[in-house]
Amino acid sequence: MANGNSVRMVIGASPSLAYQAAGRRQTSVLKRRLAVRLRQGQVWSQNLLLPQRPSRATHGSESSTTGHDMTKPNILILMVDQLTGTLFADGPAAFLHTPNLRKLAAKSVRFGNAYTASPLCAPARAAFMSGALPRRTRVYDNAAEFASDIPTYAHHLRRAGYQTALSGKMHFVGPDQLHGFEQRLTTDIYPADFGWTPDYRKPGERIDWWYHNLGSVTGAGVAEITNQLEYDDDVAHQAVQKIYDLSRGLDPRPWSLTVSFTHPHDPFVARRKYWDLYEGAPELQPPAPLAYEDMDPHSKRLMDACDWRGMAVTDDHIRRARQGYFANISYVDDKIGEVLAALAASRQEAIIVFVSDHGEMLGRKGLWFKMNFFEGAARVPLMIAASGLTAGLIETPVSTIDLTPTLCDLAGISMEEVMPWTDGESLVPLAKGQARSTPVAMEYAAEGSITPMVALRQGAWKYIHCLADPDQLFDLANDPEEEVNLATNPRAAEILAHFQALANERWDLQAYDNEVRQSQARRWVVYEALRNGNYYPWDYQPLRAASERYMRNHMDLNILEESKRFPRGE
């Protein structure tokens, strides 16, 4: 059972007769209070039987318990999966059919060189939520547990008086499936156990039942429903319902809602209405090919992990895969439009953040999916629309680990207690014109690798380092496709030495390797043990108290109808 579920089950369970009697007495009192507050334009708790318990402390910022604290902004985080930032150099690329994201971009600070902390779902998301790199979170791969003692932005906001909710994917692994969220509106799309653990003890091994393969490329096409479409349809629906519920004002706290979609992550299968938007588009043409024998060692390992020899990929396959990918960007834009339309219709205001966990190679350099530090996989879109921040383009390199300090900064919350163990920094000073020179750090220690890899982006340069491979150094200003490795060029020796010194100061890669191997070995033992006998998965089960929905006999119908209506009196 996931953390939080047992509590929710108690709340949603049928009460005893004694509890019912007590509940009726308490409800009678609350009805009278609610009626007064409704007449005064105020509200009480969302659950008439369970009024909110005030927080013990405000921890650095004032917290209101008797009305919405107008000094605290609401926060709406819109997250997508595997959307490459190379298509969002300054908002959506011109050829993309994304009216909602284009409108959002026009009022946002747009970070044109934003990078993931790790080019894989679970490590990227744990880093995004905590502001810490994977070595610190110990979420090395898609089956590594995200420890409950690591504060996330949901913890920081909730501690300061926010209500926090998640609709959609966050790929938490382990028994804690909340990580600071007070409410999850959906389950996750991927498993929460240790079953997807890589194994550095077996380099070159391909785990067929869960590793990526190129079937997502050769199988690209049209469908009206898929596993992923079913999921994201529900994510949007639950988010819209939540936004309308928040507008009723039945909980006086400011809110933070994270809406996280799985698209445009492969498979590259899209609904016909979106597929047809890109029919014949020039952008469908395959990127310049790169032969396997000309790839760097890690790229070769990724190709082997994707079983490239087992499937023949043609130019037509590539065009269709790219069409499906672009189509699903338009699909998720529609879903984001539904969420933003509900926000506008309910007359609520919020800071809006748009971000992806990592990117997608889309055939560049002969590669697909992510799991590397090249621009297609490592760069992500990042836009922030907030009062006090002037819309415009910022080209300074930044990271998704900067978002947790940024959200706390915008909400007036101090992270001083945990900043020594936080790798990110607030983007607010940069957005307000201050210079920033901190290099962007990235880490990867999952499938396709045989030992941890790291990267640094500073200025126009990107440096990639791995104990198993030769260094790579790219001048992105003059070589945006990363075709020329300058690490062996004498003219770049000084730049290379600079980055090598930065990397050696930041990382002990041999120690990092030992930590990853220890984690993997432990998880293989635990997973194989838990799959013997009765199996109790950690997958999150959303629980909704049916006795607290719509009309029930412990409620007053007149008060209920008035409290659930917004706007009132029109």
What's this model, at a glance?
This protein is of the alpha/beta class and 570 residues long. The protein has helices at 5-12, 17-39, 99-106, 121-130, 134-137, 153-159, 215-218, 227-247, 272-275, 297-305, 315-345, 375-378, 403-410, 428-431, 493-506, 509-530, 557-563, and strands spanning 75-80, 109-111, 114-115, 163-168, 183-184, 221-222, 255-260, 269-270, 351-356, 379-380, 382-385, 392-394, 398-399, 440-444, 453-458, 461-466, 472-475. The strands form four sheets. An eight-stranded mixed sheet has the order 5-4-7-1-9-11-2-12, with helices on both faces. A four-stranded antiparallel sheet has the order 14-15-16-17, with helices on one face. Strands 10-3-13 form a three-stranded mixed sheet.
